[in-house]
Amino acid sequence: MSKSTKLWGGRFSEGISDVAHRFSSSIALDGKLWREDIRGSIAHARMLGERSIITKEEASAIIAGLEDVALEIESGAFQFNDSMEDVHLAIEQRLTEKIGAVGGKLHTGRSRNDQIATDERLYLKRAIPVLFNNASEVIRELLIKAEEYIDAIMPGYTHLQRAQPVLLAHHLLAYVEMFARDRERLAGVLSRVDRSPLGAAAFAGTSYPIDREMTAKEIGFGTTLGNSIDAVSDRDYLIELASTCSIIMMHLSRMAEELILWSTREFGFVTMSDAVTTGSSIMPQKKNPDMAELIRGKVGRVYGALINLLTTMKGLPLAYNRDMQEDKQPMFDAIETTGDSLEMMALILRETRFNISKMESAASGELMATEIADYLVRAKGVPFREAHHITGKIVSFAEDAGKDLDQLTLNDYRVFSEHFEQDIFEYLDPRRSLAEKRSAGSSNPDMVTEAIRKMESGIKPIITAIEYNCS
Amino acid sequence: MSKSTKLWGGRFSEGISDVAHRFSSSIALDGKLWREDIRGSIAHARMLGERSIITKEEASAIIAGLEDVALEIESGAFQFNDSMEDVHLAIEQRLTEKIGAVGGKLHTGRSRNDQIATDERLYLKRAIPVLFNNASEVIRELLIKAEEYIDAIMPGYTHLQRAQPVLLAHHLLAYVEMFARDRERLAGVLSRVDRSPLGAAAFAGTSYPIDREMTAKEIGFGTTLGNSIDAVSDRDYLIELASTCSIIMMHLSRMAEELILWSTREFGFVTMSDAVTTGSSIMPQKKNPDMAELIRGKVGRVYGALINLLTTMKGLPLAYNRDMQEDKQPMFDAIETTGDSLEMMALILRETRFNISKMESAASGELMATEIADYLVRAKGVPFREAHHITGKIVSFAEDAGKDLDQLTLNDYRVFSEHFEQDIFEYLDPRRSLAEKRSAGSSNPDMVTEAIRKMESGIKPIITAIEYNCS
Amino acid sequence: MSKSTKLWGGRFSEGISDVAHRFSSSIALDGKLWREDIRGSIAHARMLGERSIITKEEASAIIAGLEDVALEIESGAFQFNDSMEDVHLAIEQRLTEKIGAVGGKLHTGRSRNDQIATDERLYLKRAIPVLFNNASEVIRELLIKAEEYIDAIMPGYTHLQRAQPVLLAHHLLAYVEMFARDRERLAGVLSRVDRSPLGAAAFAGTSYPIDREMTAKEIGFGTTLGNSIDAVSDRDYLIELASTCSIIMMHLSRMAEELILWSTREFGFVTMSDAVTTGSSIMPQKKNPDMAELIRGKVGRVYGALINLLTTMKGLPLAYNRDMQEDKQPMFDAIETTGDSLEMMALILRETRFNISKMESAASGELMATEIADYLVRAKGVPFREAHHITGKIVSFAEDAGKDLDQLTLNDYRVFSEHFEQDIFEYLDPRRSLAEKRSAGSSNPDMVTEAIRKMESGIKPIITAIEYNCS
Amino acid sequence: MSKSTKLWGGRFSEGISDVAHRFSSSIALDGKLWREDIRGSIAHARMLGERSIITKEEASAIIAGLEDVALEIESGAFQFNDSMEDVHLAIEQRLTEKIGAVGGKLHTGRSRNDQIATDERLYLKRAIPVLFNNASEVIRELLIKAEEYIDAIMPGYTHLQRAQPVLLAHHLLAYVEMFARDRERLAGVLSRVDRSPLGAAAFAGTSYPIDREMTAKEIGFGTTLGNSIDAVSDRDYLIELASTCSIIMMHLSRMAEELILWSTREFGFVTMSDAVTTGSSIMPQKKNPDMAELIRGKVGRVYGALINLLTTMKGLPLAYNRDMQEDKQPMFDAIETTGDSLEMMALILRETRFNISKMESAASGELMATEIADYLVRAKGVPFREAHHITGKIVSFAEDAGKDLDQLTLNDYRVFSEHFEQDIFEYLDPRRSLAEKRSAGSSNPDMVTEAIRKMESGIKPIITAIEYNCS
User: How far apart are CA D241 and CA D188, in angstroms?
Assistant: First the structure.
């Protein structure tokens, strides 16, 4: 069994076994964090120099070396490989190859424990604004569609049964509300991410006169974390983000479900373009809403990432435990899956045409029953429960007679209640029904138009990504 | 098969089957929401009167009737039973029994869809502040213990291996940070809960000239939800709360794990009183930390509630689907389990004595190795990596020799590096090591004392529960 | 703070606190296991007598006392209440009240640790056959419907797009396969449940000359567990059952989804009777498939129970930990929810009428495209990929022309390939297409009929519930 | 926006968008299944030739071409890239490039829907035996250790409190039982995996006279699936495997937890070699049980995979939906993580030395209390509950006196009960206590030795991997 040599190997007479090395190496995942790692190291080196923990010259040499390593990685000249243990040691080792033993001074006053927490938080400071903007993009497409189809009427559903007519725009705005809440939640997570753990060292702090405020500011953190043990043992931010991503995916799954339903032959409410549909290898007529299905399917991946993180953190004593290395896969998985799915949904919306005549013709008939009950209550003073009961009987009668509600005669109506008069037929027009809606937030066209206007002004990104140069 | 009759039964020739009634009745769970339901109904009735949708007299009769029903439920004179469908219909039916057909006017301009969302949000407006205060109570106990044991030293651990000495108070404060973040998250959820859905009716709004602002204000909501379809189809607030509860339980599970470890014969760091320990039915000597174990075990229940909610909401088309009735069990389960567990943990802390001499004697010896490396770096200018390597060799030597690091001679040390001088032995004192810690948030006693002071001033509840009278 | 006294309280000077008692009492859940507990105790007492660990007279007194307690519980004369700790102590205490100090001998050579594992396994020996039979009942209803509608054609779907015609019976038989696999899995779990832990005592076995085979046989277990530590620390059987229930619920959720879709106005494939549908409190025309929605919604509860159990058991050291008490809620929840949902689904099937003319008319038109491609391949020797491509062009042409595939002329067809001849039109008949299916397990009517026959003969319960008298 | 061209693109005027292509391409994951895909295709082609659906010459050309493609992939001459859609189309396209249009005939009478199900099941037919053997390897190492330390005594724990002495071997055998059950479950899953879906085509079967039995046999399946719709829509086998893997990981997490505890300074029961431990980048003395921690941490990944699959399959209508493509990541993740973790655990066991003197000295003192109670019951006829109570008082007395139970005098004992005589002191010897254990499966040394012997004979693999050549 050949053995790896490690930077921390002083007290070890033999190296770790190859199987153990493969089992424990995290470079394949945490290698993605090289930008964050180098950025944090540069700030740390500069601070060490400023606070005279190392000389200014040493600091400069380390910083220049790190910048070189960054270029090497960017260009592909230096590549991570499986023989390396993790991104921190890979970069430090490369640094030391380039600038000699002084590279070993970089790790003064810190530990991989605070370093990885810094890298992750920094990564999230980039990733969360991207998710935020992805969500904004979906909102934008929804608003564009809402405006484009501002006059379109569709059947609103409860229990997937036609219930009452609504504006298509009103339906789309319900999704805008969901993604707007998602943006609120993302902002909340970001506020808790934006705290620097750097300088907590292994977990107890350090006797070097480091300046945690300085590194935090240099890296771009809003503030520092208060307790060094908590700083390295906390992964709340990842769980909270995975939970927020799970809710986003849940919203997308509902929207995807509707788009899939609506593109069936049976509903026929939408047509998606060839850009977002696929065919069958066996059935030549098929035009499948695969992209929407994949979004719906990917919700499982993000729920899984959330459970992964929650399970891993359960019952861990303080401070750092190696179990926590397992946070990378669910972190990347949740973020990338959610970001891609939001991006895909925005594209689907752009590539979808609504068949408004089909929708409108579905928005009449038995859905007008509530209007009949309302007629009895509002125009005739019948108690609601009684009006509801009378209308139920009428619906049942119409169904048995194979007629629509507007095909019944006034006499038919009057069999069930003497309160009915000729004006009942005015109540059976969906557009009148919408215009009559008066409650705030309802499907009334004026209110919907106003809601779109307000939402458009709210779409401006309230978070801007931090500025350092990352792909 | 006998059949139930239902308030909505107008169009139905037969009633629902008994099996279906039992399968679908939610009264056993949503009956808990009767206070919220009545409170919302009173506000709705008053608004109907104010806006002349019903007469003032009708409104008064309904309100008086509802208050009577509340008294009946409170006193046990009226009890829910399995023949009822849900809390809304049970109360309305009882109201109508008491005040006659006018009771049927209460449901004008609303639906069970907005009603249940109102009830749930109102319930959360009570429950979240309770959780917040429960978390505060744990924080308070942690701070009391931190002050009481301000001088106690313990071994800090990583990988459950003794790592470096820390103050017990510093360790306890790490948990304060966690629960403080939990409080932040609870406040965030509450801000999204505090929006009234009432008046969204079935989902499309209503043609009655209702005033949603008025009912929101009367009930005590901060604002109203903007889109009526979203208002009845949203359950984000429950998922977000279940996620927040999951993180709280995860924190409690870590603390419980440590208390269980520390109360073993092997660690012996704490002794819990008889009030929070139990015995064995077979082994007379046992004194088991059952309460801590139960807290750790209950984390599964809350994770399960979170997955329950996420699963149920996946892929549901808008607006309301009956699947959503299944939100009650995980809602109550997450809230009650988390609240009870926080309360229990506060009690455990009160009933726990720390064995500081045992802790302190464990906080010496090989944990001082980092100090040796730091000695070489800070006092002698050896690059960190080299200092680390030298110290590793010394630790290995001491281990083979069966000696502690402070039992080695200066000559022993000098075998590994000529940099060692007599002052190395000063570095091996844990208290000196703590006093030397200089980084912000570290285990330095002055900093820890200051941190306690700051945290104490932050413990004041920032949320006060809403005022209406509920048990 | 008042204190509870406990049977195990010898070494405790104070009792447990009231808060802790409430937090830790399990009687509200494990009280359901009283039959199993008493049955296990009777077997244990008889064995103690047979092996002369207690006298025959003592054994008889204990057994008679336990039978009395059982009658008291059955009749309601003795009721559990919250002051009790768990079902084991509640029953033993009642026993001792009735027969005096000799009751204390019952616990000789056992512990609550092996007792609860025995109770749970015994409970599952009743519950699993019930689930098995519930699944069989759904299979039976599916087969009845398959036979009733043996001639009905429906569009088969992939991606929820009409794909190829199939027999409705063939579609229903797909679900039979799922529930048949569920029965296999239930049988597998039962085989691992059917092993007695009794006699493992606290975890190390006992020095009393007990006879584990004797108690196992008396209680009705197939065999005994081999290792006493494993016997009390194992909860695999619960997880495996929760996983099996999760798969069952997943199957039910798919079936529920289809029934909900099919009962929409848009599909219109099924009509459910009033017995399994409900109305709306606001929209008089609604007839909602609530029971199917609830089944779909309840899948979350069972997934949650699975995660609950998996989380609770993660990382527990051997042997027994109090965390494991938290297994009751998910156990009961998974079993009851799954059993009720299966029962409900059987009823829904009984109460559902298929609208075969609607289905059949949906099973023509563009779904016949695969037949056109097959025509080119089989009758004309065109390579499949080319045939697929040609047919795709034809479908596109028909769509643009607003025509169905059987409304195109031979000339239309020949524009795309000279291989087309008059016999192409025969290929466009769905019934011919089904009759032409030749592959095993396909939608060919003869094969489907044969499959029904085989499945009917396989429906006989292969598990019979154990015989002892339980409600 | 550039567009991809697809094999199924006949009816599509534009190609799929690049974003959609990236979002939907599965080649990065399903490319791992190329061996299975080619193996299935060869069997299919041979059958098509045998049944004269294509000519023998065509079949031979296709088979030779596929074998060539396999060699190209094996050697790296042909590599998958992101422009490809999935493994099936990539291989077929390459085949057609090599052998011309006849390659297009391969897909006759099948679909990607049955093809992917075949590939996955075939992959599991390789993977499950590997997991089975990995579990066997852990069992083997446990048995080796159990034999090596057959005389070693350790404290058995409940609630992590010392409870009663047991043999270390007995404790290790508890894990053998767990992994033996895992092997049973794996065998059960395999029996349900071993059924061929090939020939179900898209879902309805096919009109080509294919022979499903022939391909099943050729590929190596035990039997065929009975219903073509079920054959393509079933993913039970993946969920069942992920659940089985979750239970395995749960077992490993318990073992890992114990190894971590036992390697603390406080317990000191084990020493792991350098091959499976790692150091700290900052604390030179650290020797951390990282491999055990990683195993414990990875349990989250597998639980996550299980929830992923369950979530994705929830509520999907029949037959195939693109959501199901998302099954690959959790499938590979669950299998690889579990396999690696089992392999790692076997290595840890090989590299672990038990410190038996430390264990033995921990296995005396207060754990002997049960023996005192048993003495009173068995030697003196005191009812168990009373004996338990007396012993509790003695333990409390000894604790207050700061003495061990064997340091009390006979007079001390007689204060609590006159039944005590000189022979009580014999009962306080742990080895005597073990020798006295008489119940089957207990910690009695003879029984444990016999158990090891039996388990060794059961370790032979009952599953052998299928024979075809795969890496």
Answer: 10
Question: Which CATH number does the domain housing residue D177 bear?
Answer: 1.20.200.10
How far is Cα of residue B299 from the mean position of the Cα atoms in its chain?
A: 10
Query: In chain D, positions 339-378, which contact chain B (CB-CB < 8 Å)?
Result: 362, 366-367, 369-370, 372-373
Judge: D160–B261 Cβ closer than 8 Å, yes or no. Answer: yes
Count the domains in chain A: 3
CA distance C161 to chain A (A): 6
The ipTM assigned to this model is 0.93
B88 vs A contacts (CB less than 8 Å): none
Among the candidates A108, A135, A153, a domain finishes at A108
Cross-chain residue pair C287–A161, CB shorter than 8 Å: yes
Region of poorest pLDDT, from B10-19, C53-62, C322-331, D330-339: B10-19
Q: Which of C1, C2, C8 to mutate to test the interface with B (most CBs of B within 10 A)?
A: C8
Interface of B with A in 144-163 (CB under 8 A): 156-160, 163
Q: Which residue of B has its CA nearest to A382?
A: B105
Whether residue C32 sits in one domain with residue C92 = yes
What is the C-alpha to C-alpha distance for residues B378 and A57, in angstroms, rounded to an integer? Answer: 17
Q: How many Å apart are CA A314 and CA A332, to the nearest integer?
A: 20
The torsion defined by the Cα of C147, C153, C157 and C162, in degrees rounded to 10, comes to: -170
Domain limits at D333? 113-203+221-361
**Residue of C104, C319, C52 lying closest to C201 (CA atoms):** C319
Residue C6 has pLDDT above 70, yes or no: no
Give the pLDDT score at C5.
Answer: 47
CATH number at residue C33: 1.10.275.10
Per the CB < 8 Å rule, is B254 touching A9? no
Tell me, what's the pLDDT at D1?
Answer: 33
Interface with C, mutate which of A159, A262, A359, A366 (most C CBs under 10 A): A159
Same domain, B345 and B198: yes
Spatial contact of B259 and B272, defined as CB atoms under 8 Å apart: yes
Are B439 and A226 inside 8 Å of each other by CB? no
> Do D319 and D372 share a domain, yes or no?
no
- Is a pLDDT exceeding 90 seen at residue A287? no
Q: Which of D93, D108, D123 is the last residue of a domain?
A: D108
CB < 8 Å to D390, chain B: 284
Per-residue pLDDT, averaged over C393-411, amounts to 88
Residues B64 and B198 in one domain: no
C170 is catalytic: no
Contact assignment for D287 to B162 by CB distance below 8 Å: no
Question: Residue A338 is encoded by which pair of tokens?
Answer: 């959610």
pLDDT along chain D (471 residues), means of 10: 49 77 92 97 97 96 97 96 92 95 91 96 96 96 97 96 95 97 96 96 93 96 96 97 98 98 96 88 82 98 98 97 97 97 97 95 87 87 85 88 88 93 90 91 94 86 47 31
Please give the structure tokens belonging to residue D338.
């579990």
CA A274 to CA D9: how far, in whole Å?
A: 10
On whether both C425 and C298 belong to a single domain, the answer is no
Question: Do B55 and B182 lie in a common domain?
Answer: no
pLDDT in the model for residue B285: 77
**CATH value at residue B403:** 1.10.40.30
Residues D232, D370 within the same domain: no
User: What's residue D379's pLDDT?
Assistant: 86
CA distances to B22, B230, D125 from A140, in Å:
45, 18, 48
pTM, to two decimals: 0.95
**Is D391 in contact with B285 (Cβ distance < 8 A)?**
yes
In the block, residue with structure tokens 């809003």: A222
Is residue B321 in some structural domain? yes
Buried b (16+ CB within 10 A) or exposed e, D90-120: bbbebbbebbeebbbbbbbbbbbbbbbbbbb
CB pairs under 8 A between A and D: 227
